[in-house]
Amino acid sequence: MKAGSTSIRRQVQLCMGKVGLPVGSLVYVKQGQRENTAVAYDESWLGSPQRFNVSNDLQLVPGYQPHKAASPQDSVFHGAIADTAPDAWGRRIIARDHAKRRRKEPHLSALTEMDYLLAVDDFSRVGALRLCDPDRHWHRTLQEGRRSTPPLIDLERIFHASRAVELGQETIEDLSYLQGKGTSLGGMRPKCTMVDEDGRLAIGKFPSVGDARSVTQGEVLALKLAAKAGIDAASARLVCLDAVSIAVIRRFDRDDTDGRIPYQSAVSLLLAARAQDHSYTEMADAIRSYGHSPSQDIQQLWRRLVFNLLITNVDDHLHNHGFLHVEKGLWRLAPAFDLNPFPDKDRESKTWLSEEDGPITDISMLLDRADYFALSAEQALAVLAEVHAAVLDWRQLALSKDVGLREEDLDDFAPAFEHEQMEAAAALLGR
Q1: 405 close to 413: Cβ distance less than 8 angstroms
Q2: Dihedrals φ, ψ of 237, to 5°?
Q3: H or E segment to which residue 40 belongs
């Protein structure tokens, strides 16, 4: 549509999984500055024994169900669809590329939220929802028969192109190469979707020009510590390219046969608006309502809260928690991801413990709320002991070949792992 147009309407088909089972229709409308969408389930989906509600802000009923953003910070799409849109880094690439093209083609319209959504490569779109046109052509960034998700061998090229973007020195070729390689799971840091050496889908995370420490090694350290602490965490490893450490983190929304697993973020499950504060007790309530194994997941959630506090992972907003569909509209807590130690920040969670408690700042408030997370006082102390023991061993794991930090790097991370809350936990455990 030409620049200056005041009304845009686009419709795409929603499909599900590897075979692309039809689910419904998504309609996007933009009138001036106003944007809204609507989704209608197909009759075939509503009558299918495989049916389930793909997004918590939809209902399994016929007819179009409208949605508009609750605030300028919220998505114009229903939750599970919004979860598949590019993250802040992906949007940056798409916007930069579009801006450069508009200099040569000034007739091009401004980007819409639908443009951003459709810019994600179908092969790597998060979860099981897929978008296609009426002729069953999957919406992707490259022509049919090609794929923009690169193999491990291309990581160096992607890293250099990403670094050029951060420095404002990118070429049209850099942006063209990066298009479609973004991810929905993350924020502003440079990253890409990729195919690992074993053929599995993964996320490659790169150092940023502004890093004062090795953030990529810190994230792999945190994920490996989490696994030692009894947390179901995304598998992670490091790849070294010319002394640059790149974190390769396995995608958990694909199974062993490349089947696609439906995904919702905690934002979607809780029907959360960005302008509002939300809490972990709310998440526990949602797990009780929609969880496949509610007691197990609620206890696992509490374990993650303890771990986050003890490693100073304070970037725990609701987009950094997710759920995978199991069966019949029941969901399980997805593996932990985006775990990062922040040695230069106060230990105060972004997501509140409860409306009454506010942000998590110390171990005692977590213990006081343990019963809400299906744990007795004795069970909570046992979990604390396991998490504390794992975090206590952080230096040894950091220096191991799996993480590869040097002795001189440890001081950069020490405040995240060695602090008064670790001491308080040790005192409670009699250590």
Answers
A1: yes
A2: -150, 170
A3: strand 34-41
Could you tell me the two tokens for 68?
């508009």
pLDDT digits (tens, 9 = 90+) for 179-194: 766 666 667 889 988 8
Q: What is the DSSP string of 42-72?
A: -HHHHT-TT---SSTT--SSSSEEEE--SST
Residue 167 has, within 13 A of its CA and on its CB side, a CA count of 12
pLDDT of residue 253: 97
Please state, in angstroms and rounded to a whole number, the distance separating the CA atoms of residues 179 and 163: 15
Tokens, residue 191: 């990253």
C-alpha count within 13 angstroms, C-beta hemisphere, residue 348 = 6
pLDDT at res. 145 = 40
The label of the residue with tokens 């000034």 reads 106
Query: Which residues are 201's β-sheet partners?
Result: 195
Fill in the amino acid letter for 91. R
Cross-sheet strand order for the sheet of 330-333: 263-265, 322-327, 330-333
Q: Is 56 exposed, middle or buried (0-12, 13-18, 19+ CB in 10 A)?
A: buried
Classify 111 as helix, strand or coil: coil
**Contact (Cβ atoms closer than 8 angstroms) between residue 60 and residue 41:** yes
Query: For the range 57-60, what are the long-range contacts, defined as Cβ-Cβ under 8 Å and sequence gap of 24 or more?
Result: 57/268, 57/271
Tokens read off for 202: 């993964």
Low-confidence ranges of the chain (pLDDT < 50): 1-4, 143-147
Q: Residue 52: which residues within 8 A CB-CB, separation 6 or more?
A: 60, 262, 325, 327, 328, 329
Question: Which DSSP symbol is given to 320?
Answer: G
Residue 307: which of 227, 404, 204 has the closest Cα?
227
Per-residue pLDDT, 2: 45
Rounded to a whole number of angstroms, the distance between the first and last alpha carbons of the chain is: 68
Cα 284 from Cα 371, distance rounded (Å)? 11
Structure tokens given for 89: 């880094």
* Residues contacting residue 364 through CB under 8 Å, at least 6 positions apart: 424
pLDDT score recorded for residue 144:
46
Ramachandran bin of 329, using left for φ above 0, alpha for ψ from -120 to 50, beta for the remaining angles? left
Number of Cβ within 10 Å of residue 185's Cβ equals 23
* pTM exceeds 0.70 for this model: yes
The answer to whether the CB of 354 falls within 8 A of the CB of 373 is no
Cα dihedral 312, 313, 314, 316, rounded to 10, equals -150
Q: What is the Cα–Cα distance from 129 to 147, expressed in whole angstroms?
A: 18
Q: What is the DSSP letter of 147?
A: -
**Predicted confidence (pLDDT) per residue in 228-241, tens digit:** 999 999 999 999 98
**Are the C-beta atoms of 324 and 332 separated by less than 8 Å?**
yes
**Bridge-partner residues for 264, per DSSP?**
323
